[in-house]
TrEMBL record:
InterPro entries hit by this protein: UreH-like_TM_dom
Transmembrane segments: 6-31, 52-70, 76-96, 133-152, 164-185, 197-217
Species whose genome carries this gene: Pseudoalteromonas caenipelagi
Alphabetic keyword roster: Membrane, Transmembrane, Transmembrane helix
Name used for this protein in its record: Sulfite exporter TauE/SafE family protein
Record's signal peptide: none
Length: 223
């Protein structure tokens, strides 16, 4: 189960990297322009490292919370597995572009989390040093993205805080190709990931895995 979770998180990050380019790509590009006195490749690396670090911290915290309650209540543990299955289905629908199934999650995250964290932005600008680039990346790692928060729901059923952090690390690694490549290469990768057959193939993986989790959770709940 752990291996499937890590692979699914990586695939989600890879398929959703086109979405990442829209939401985070502009921030990363403008950061390189503002931090003109710094090496652009190092700015990009530190920004994405900071973003991945935030994902891992969030994954570890959510996994710790989920495992703590799950150990005390079997029904709660099965409910988390059921929730993960539901979000797998939502991600599959989102990836296949059959519906905007994660928009509500982005709106919720914006209201509950992002509108408060974004205020810290003023303390980091202008970005004139490498440590600030890293911290800036950590801040923008909390940007309300439906795919990120969907991956976080999977960490609720992680076996440990480390497993939760690893799930989010794999998600971050999946987003890296699109975030690091530039120019024509980025356009070609984006076209490939947005091809109908590719989206249908990857979306099907999430839907089938979601159904698998729902069957397991329902069977154990009934018996």
């Amino acid at each position: 189960m752990n291996e499937i979770s890590l692979l699914s998180a990586f695939i989600m990050g890879l398929v959703g990297s086109g979405h990442c380019l829209v939401m985070c790509g502009g921030v990363a590009s403008s950061l390189q322009l503002v931090a003109h006195s710094l090496k652009s490749w190092l700015v990009s690396a530190l920004y994405n490292l900071g973003r991945a670090s935030s994902y891992m911290v969030a994954g570890a915290l959510v996994a710790t919370l989920g495992s703590t309650f799950a150990k005390q209540n079997t029904t709660f543990a099965l409910s988390l597995k059921f929730l993960s299955g539901v979000f797998m289905l939502l991600v599959g629908i989102y990836v296949m572009r059959l519906a905007s199934s994660l928009k509500w999650l982005e709106s919720l995250a914006k209201t509950v989390i992002w509108q408060h964290l974004v205020k810290l932005n003023k303390h980091l600008l202008p970005v004139k040093s490498y440590p600030r680039v890293f911290v800036y990346g950590m801040l923008w790692g909390w940007l309300p993205c439906g795919l990120v928060y969907s991956a976080l729901t999977w960490t609720l059923q992680a076996s440990s805080s480390l497993h939760g952090a690893m799930i989010m690390l794999c998600f971050a690694l999946g987003t890296l190709p699109a975030m690091l490549v530039v120019g024509q290469s980025a356009q070609q990768l984006n076209r490939f990931l947005n091809h109908n057959l590719v989206r249908l193939a990857f979306g099907s993986i999430f839907i089938w895995y979601g159904i698998y989790l729902l069957i397991i959770a329902t069977d154990r709940l009934v018996h």
